[in-house]
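Replying to the earlier thread about multi-chain prediction with a worked example.

Input:
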Amino acid sequence: MKNTISQRVADFLKNYPPFNELKNIALEQLSEQVSIVYKEKGSVIFTEKEAGHAFFYIVHKGAISLHKKSTDAIIDMCDEGDIFGLRPLMANENYELEAKAHEESILYAIPITLFKPLALENKAVGNFLIESFASNTRNPYSKIHRGKLYSEATEPSKETPGIGLIDVQPVQFSKKIAICSPTTTVKKIAELMTKKKIGSIIIALDKLPVGIITDKDLRNKIVTGKFPITATADEIMTSPVITYPSSLTITQAQMAMMKSNISHLCLTEDGTPNTKVVGMLSKHDIMVSLGNNPAVLIKAIKRAKKIKHLKPIRHSVMGLLRAYLQGNIPMTLISKIISELNDACMKQVIKISLEKIKNPPPVKFAWLAIGSQGRSEQMLHTDQDNALIFEDVEEELLPKTTAYFLKLSQLITKGLNDIGYEYCPAEMMASNPKWCLSLSEWKKSTSHWIINPGIDEVLLSSIFFDYNVVYGENKLANELSEHIFYTVKKYPIFFLHLAKGALQNPSPTGFFRQFLVEQDGDHKDTFDVKSRALRPLTDAARVLILSHYIKGINNTAERFEKLAELEPNNKEIYLACSYASKALLKFRTKQGLSNNSSGRFIALNDLTKEEKIKLKRTFKTIKEIQELVMHRFQLKVM
Amino acid sequence: MFNFFKKNKKEYPDYWNTYAETFKNPISQDVDATSFIVLDTETTGFDYVSDRILCIGALEIRQQTIEIHKAFEVYIQQDVYGKESAKIHGILKDGVIPKISELEALQLFLRYLGNKTIVAHHAFFDINMINKALARQGLPPLKNNYLDTSNLYKKTLLKSKFITKKEQYSLDELADKFSISKKDRHTALGDAYITAIIFLKIITKLKEKKEVTLSILFQ
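Result:
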């Protein structure tokens, strides 16, 4: 029976192939028999060699990873609208890959008994399946899953061969094929290329490619004066066009470009100039699809016009991070690059949100990343912690201004959530009215924390004082920093409390130097590397650097380096701390990547002996720095 | 004549007795194995006495799965009509949607429900509305256990002074917090679906902290 939910399902399905080929009635009937399956992160939908289910699946929300258990390498990542688990059912085989919820996901399970007759009856549906099975482009998967850049369908493939990076294409280059006739004037062509922001254009006659004009042609032939601006396309175009079939792999495309020394490839239906143009591939597209170059990723982030375009780029950033860690690149460099990319993503989310809200901000503001993000220590997708400062306004305007920025913050935090930053469970986010304040309100708040340093206030300070401006007016943040330092100087007892807070973390090891593990909950018997190892270092660095009244250095490792410089007699221990914090961060990041988690809780059984020793070595440093903090600030009070 | 004053169980209609009978079966304590009926009603207003149910929407969650063809959606013919609430749910008194009588709706719903645990947002309201309708048929209230997603959500929040826990959380607020599309909001089945997803996500959140059994949810 048709109902509200089956209609909702049908509305969703009709946007995606092959369901878009079905007649409304067939789609409605199919939708009525769908099951909606909720999968928590990490749960398995089906595993290798398992017998086929009665359903195949389409991702409604979230992401599903398909991988080989033996290698653990992710072979495909299915996003919203992607189908998986269909091919084995059509062929009556067992599953070849394991499907796991990479994120919390909602799936629509579609009964194969109902779908099969539709696929046989409806030619368009059948063709889609045959094609995607044959070319291995998308949804259904096969043993030899090689990334192909194009299928006959317009949708670009999302895989990269070999290198183990999860690449989901953010740039929809296939849509940007611009075609002109040979008689178009050069001026018109230049205008069109500017408007469409493209670097090349295909010249076609009856849809068959006859030539290509690139930026270089315009520069070499028009700007130099060789041809007048009134010249027509056929006079300056490069002809004939070198064409390739759409089933090109990335490597083949790269080879082709190198061989002919060109940066754009024209793709046709069968690879000869005698068939229709189906796509255009630029060097940039390849770079993005390889996803192993920060500069390219930054460019892709800046080009993203919608939040949902950013999400796949974040996948690539994670791929990059993985590759860096495998390549044993220094952690300082890794954290710089990854933080830079994360920052760019956040900036873009803010920009997109500002466009969405339409009216411009009534006054200047600054968006602050706080906590680990503010310290540039957040490599993985963890919680978002942020705050917003806006310029002071007249009292009667304050409610209205606050309302505007709260609304903006809600958009931004939602956007960040959409690209993978979970909401902060403690609501330390600018969408919370307590974290979206005018400059004077912030001054009042921070003064209150400093003057009345209870346990909560110290905790708030320790999270907030590591802020870093992500977007907007640095001046506002600087002014707040100055105020904080000024207040702290007047109430030095605050340091005592901050120092005390720094010593309150649970100890990493017990009396017999054994690891202390969590007693219950989901993380039972795992080691909490965040609160038992990283936080003591972070807290110590903060109180020490603040007591020197140094501002502008947020990163824990850098803080210790600065401290080593300031206190040569303690140089050794500070440098050890700097090293330890980098090592622990690397540890956590690696753990997080391999478990698709925040990396906070480490299963000790998974560690090698060497890793355990390495981990324990940092504990000694932690103990030493805690003793230093203890002595220093106790003395101060006495 | 004699029996008129001594109304006992046997005199209830068959559909009620069949429903009551189901409670003899045990209910699984395993949250993932047991069945939940997620429920929402659209009403003419918020007054338990004078207002009436216009629509009941419900679906079953079992093993984190909702089978669409097992969803329950009935529209009820009522003489009472609330102009104000019609703006919200859009159900017109003489609209084109096929409607059935309240009695028929109750019969169908009791058969659908059985002894399963009810989940609803602000569950007390929906259950009370249904109980009032049952009372009009001379029947006792629903026998089912129920869970309220508004209360369950509070269990997921950190015990922290910085979070001001609200007394109540609206369905819209929770949908936003869990990034659930609010499409089909204010249709009974649409709201039941949103509630179902919220419920599943809350369970996942609670599982992160400790093992979740049915009895823990009722605490």
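Helices of chain B lie at 14-21, 83-89, 102-113, 123-136, 149-156, 171-177, 188-209, 214-218.

Feel free to reuse this layout for your own posts.
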